[in-house]
Design brief:
This protein is α/β, with parallel strands linked by helices and 412 residues long. It is 35% helix and 23% strand. It has helices at residues 11-22, 35-39, 51-58, 103-116, 128-135, 234-248, 250-253, 307-325, 332-357, 362-371, 375-384, 398-410, and strands spanning 3-7, 26-31, 72-80, 86-98, 120-123, 140-143, 169-176, 188-194, 198-207, 210-219, 261-262, 268-271, 276-277, 281-283, 289-292, 298-299. Strands 3, 4, 7, 8, 9, 10, 11 and 12 form an eight-stranded mixed beta sheet that branches. Strands 5-2-1-6-15-14 form a six-stranded mixed beta sheet. It has a two-stranded antiparallel sheet with strand order 13-16. The longest helix is centred in the last third of the chain and has 26 residues, at 332-357. The radius of gyration is 21 Å and the shape is globular. The protein starts with a strand and ends with a helix. The model has no long low-confidence stretch (mean pLDDT 96).
Length: 412
């Protein structure tokens, strides 16, 4: 029986651990927090998973909240004008529903399931020196947690990493009491673009206290919505969130007038990070190679909502690569090839995410405007969140955008 060590107990690490376990591998997971600590802690993300990522969970029987989480049926876009008016407003329909589950629900349940099925879980902080001592006992070591010194094992890919500083300041709140949306009667992720300020997202979700909504500001650093540094009081965090909504996107603030409240004491999150792509094969102090997983090696800004999606797809790609490799050594060539397989998915995500962090070029503004007149444009953009590779030849390319708009308007 082949032995695998996974450092990290997030979406990618646990999904991969459970997948390998189901195929008879001897898997150990190292994590610095146990299930109860995660459940009682602060929110860790503002995830929304689309159909192709959800299918990787269903394939392993891990979609434990499918009947409880709101079924997100669309993605909407609004663009704010300089006086708080709504210049653009539309919603595209998804071909298949998306869902958002608080990771404080998902990760503890998956970790307990892994342990119940015979997997070993060790609660400990891990350093590169620790991994060096452990590596000889395992056929493959995967690092699915990039916090602290473990990230230093993986060198920055200078070609694929254009940023040297954070591109957005992030502030999320999980709330109850958000009023119904007047524009449509089905759950949808809504994105409000405020030029010069940033982006605001509202995401229907499930938390421990039931259905809720995630309010997320993606503020341009140094701009008026970059206002959460130093805030430790959750109530103050929510107050600032609502005040920014009132100032810049009053149509979203209107939904809060009946009274919104945080879902729990740990329902807020703020921070910022620099998007980066790292080389996937890390070297331990003694020379052994370890393989980086998901956002350890491809860390994108959450502006396109791809974090959990990419993590799930990375876990699925690595699982298939490991199973197909049989009894052969998991050497550097294997590790690089496994990442290259994942990069076929992660590459288009990175390209699209980086494009969305920049001011929209004229052809994108044309597409945004067309979305309100031509439902096919809105629908295709919405489904790009599930398949970002589809965006390459029409959303990201000016000539492709012009040709696409000509084709859809000619059909009207």
């Amino acid at each position: 029986m082949r032995r695998v060590l996974i450092v990290g107990a997030g979406q990618a690490g646990l999904q991969l651990a459970l997948g390998l376990q189901a195929h008879g591998y001897d898997v150990t997971v190292l994590t610095d927090r146990g299930p109860e600590e995660v459940r009682a802690g602060r929110v860790t993300s503002s995830q929304c998973m689309f159909d192709s990522a959800l299918r990787t969970e269903r394939a392993l029987g891990l979609d434990l909240w499918a009947d409880r989480a709101p079924r997100i049926e669309g993605v909407g876009l609004s663009v704010a004008g300089p006086r708080g008016e709504r210049l653009i407003d539309w919603v595209g329909r998804l071909d298949a529903y998306a869902q958002s589950v608080d990771q404080r629900l998902k990760m503890p349940a998956w970790l307990e399931l892994f342990a119940e099925r015979g997997g070993r879980v060790e609660l400990r902080q891990v350093t590169p020196a620790d991994l060096q001592n452990l590596a000889g006992s395992y056929d493959l070591v995967l690092v699915a947690s990039g916090k602290g010194p473990l990230a230093s094992l993986f060198e920055r890919d200078l070609v694929r990493s254009p940023y040297e500083r954070p591109q957005r300041a992030l502030a999320a709140s999980y709330v109850h009491g958000l009023g119904p949306r007047p524009e449509h009667d089905f759950p949808a992720v809504r994105c409000d673009v405020v030029p010069g300020v940033g982006e605001f997202f509202a995401v229907p979700a499930l938390t421990g206290a039931g259905p809720c909504d995630i309010l997320l500001w993606e503020a341009q650093p140094g701009g008026p919505a970059d206002a959460f540094d130093g805030i430790r009081d959750p109530a103050e965090h929510l107050r600032v969130t609502l005040e920014l909504m009132k100032t810049f996107i009053p149509w979203e603030y209107d939904r809060t007038r009946s009274g919104v409240e945080l879902t729990d004491a740990g329902a807020t999150l703020a921070g910022r990070f620099t998007p980066v792509v790292r080389h996937p094969v890390g070297e331990l102090p003694g020379g052994a190679a370890v393989l980086g997983v998901a956002d350890v090696v491809v860390l994108n800004d959450p502006i396109t909502g791809q974090g959990s999606n990419s993590a799930a797809k990375c876990a699925a790609d690595y699982l298939e690569a490991i199973l197909a490799h049989g009894d052969k050594p998991f050497d550097r060539d294997f590790q690089q090839a496994a990442f290259d397989r994942f990069w076929r998915t992660a590459g288009p995500v990175t390209t699209w995410t980086n494009a969305m962090l920049a001011p929209p070029p004229p052809h994108v503004l044309d597409l945004f405007g067309a979305g309100g007149r031509v439902p096919a444009v809105a629908d295709r953009f919405a489904n790009g969140f599930d398949d970002p590779a589809d965006l390459d030849d029409w959303f990201l390319d000016p000539a492709g955008a012009a040709a696409y708009l000509a084709s859809v308007t000619a059909d009207r």
